[in-house]
Design brief:
With about 110 residues, this protein is mainly alpha-helical. The protein has four helices and two strands; from the N terminus they run H-E-E-H-H-H. The N and C termini lie far apart (about 45 Å).
Length: about 110
Amino acid sequence: SSVDYKLAVENIDRGVGLVIETVKELDLFEHTYFILTSDHGHNAEGGDHSTSDSPVPFIVAGPGIKPGEIAQPVANNQVAQVAALLFDVPVSPDWTNSLFPFTRYFERVTK
């Protein structure tokens, strides 16, 4: 139900807030990357659960990442690709091509 969904979102929001507060208390905030995503889950409208039907959140924040929004669909398998870029791990050309929309927001990625 929409009440259950609202409660779930509130719990996730509270949990993310606790993680951020703890990272700040440990004085690690300026050196920490956050990657938050989800699957498509259940669509309360009864859609087909496709990317266009139920967009997923894909949030990347941390040092050297500029605010912005990517309009194209994002897949959860791109989490590893984004992490590789953030930590300067060499990536295959296939990965680089699929990550092009992200790289304009990464100040520290110059490839």
